[in-house]
Amino acid sequence: MSKLYVGSEVGQLRRVLLNRPERALTHLTPSNCHELLFDDVLAVEAAGEEHDAFATTLRNQDVEVLLLHDLLVETLTVAQAREWLLNTQISDFRYGPIFARDLKAYLAQMDNEHLATILLGGLAYSELPIKSSSMLPKMHRPLDFVIEPLPNHLFTRDTSCWVYGGVSLNPMMMPARQRETNHLRAIYRWHPVFAGQDFIKYFGDEDLHYDNANIEGGDVLVIGKGAVLIGISERTKPQGVENLAASLFKSGQAKEVIAIDLPKHRSCMHLDTVMTHMDIDTFSVYPEIVRKDLDTWRLTPQEKGEMRVEKADNYLSAIEGALGLDQLTIITTGGDNYEAEREQWNDANNVLTVKPGTVISYERNVYTNEKYDKAGIEVLTIPGNELGRGRGGARCMSCPIERDGI
C-alpha cells in the first residue's frame, strides 16, 4: 500500500486528487458567477474536455488520478458517511428545522451517484419536487438555489492540503466554498483509500466555527526538507497560518514555516497564483507582486509546544536557508509588462510540477512557457481557454496526496 505523504512541491508526483467540472458549471450564469467567485461563465463541455486533457497528461507522467466525484459516490456507500454528510450539509441552522427535515428526507432516498451530483452541482427550488410547510421555499424564486453549486471544487488544491505526513482540512474564507471542506472531511474519514490509513489531521476536522483562522491550500507550498512556505493572502489569515504551524510543529512534521505577506487583491488571490516551485532550486515568480520587500516571517518550534516568530530579511534568503541552497533561480513571468500581466492573470505562474524540472502549464501562456523552456524546465502544455476563467491553473486544480520529498 502506498503511503499518504507529500514531501515536497517538486519530487515525483505519484497520486493526485482532481475534480472534473460538471453540473456545478451548468449553474453558473452572468448574474451569479461573481457571487460564486468566477469572473465569467464557462463553456461546460469544453471545460470538461480541457480537464480530461489535464488528467491524461498526468497519467502519461505515471501519476495516479483520483476524481472527487467518484470518491464522494464511493464514500456515500458507507451509511455512516451518508448520514453525517446529509446532517452536516443540510443542517437545521442552514435551512431551519422544518425545511432541513423535508429536504434531507428527499435527498436520503436518492442513489449515491445522484446525491453526489446534487451535493457538488447544486439544486434550484424549481428542481425540487417536494412540498414543505417551512417559510423558506415560499420566500424564494424558482431559480434561487436550495443547494448552491460548488464550481470552485474544481480547485481541489484549496480545500485540503497534504503537508508531509498529514492533511489540513482548510476552513475556507469565502462562504461560497465552505461546504467543500465537509466533502473532504467525509472522504478522508470513510473512503477506503483513506480510512484506517496512518496520517495526521492537522487542522480543520472538528465541527467548529474556525472564526478568523482561515487558510487555503493555494497559499501552502510544501517546499521540502521539513519547511513549509505559506502566503498570507486575500484568503489566508495570519491566524490560520499560526494554527496550522502550531499543529505541524506539535506533530513533528515540519521544522519551520515561512510566511510571506502578500497584497490582498484578486489577481494574487493565493501565493501559488504568483509563485510556484519548479525544480529543487527554481521558482517561477510574478515580480510585480512577489517583491523582495514583502514582509516575511519565520515560525519555528520551541520547547514546551511554544512557537518562535521572527522577521526574516526577505523571502529569498528565508527559502535558501530552509532548503540549504546558496542561491535560488527565479524565473519571472514572460513577455513585456502587458504580456506578463495578462499571462499572470491566466495563471502562467501557477504551474504543477510533476517531477523536478517538469511542469504542466496552460498552452496559452506562450511567453512564460518559452522562458521556462529556455531555463531548462520541460513544459507539458494543456488547453485552458475555459478552465482558466475560474482563475486557476494546473496547481490550483490538483491536490497531491502522494509525492516524493527532495
From TrEMBL:
The reaction(s) this protein catalyses: L-arginine + H2O = L-citrulline + NH4(+)
EC identifiers of the protein: 3.5.3.6
Enzyme's top EC category: hydrolase
UniProt keyword list: Arginine metabolism, Cytoplasm, Hydrolase
The keyword Cytoplasm belongs to this UniProt entry's keyword annotation: yes
Pathway(s) of this molecule: Amino-acid degradation; L-arginine degradation via ADI pathway; carbamoyl phosphate from L-arginine: step 1/2
Subcellular location field: Cytoplasm
Superkingdom of source: Bacteria
Matching InterPro entries: Arg_deiminase
Annotated active site: C396 (amidino-cysteine intermediate)
NCBIfam families linked: arcA, PRK01388.1
HAMAP family membership: Arg_deiminase
Family in the record: Belongs to the arginine deiminase family.
UniProt protein name: Arginine deiminase
Species in which this protein is naturally found: Vibrio artabrorum
Designated gene of the protein: arcA
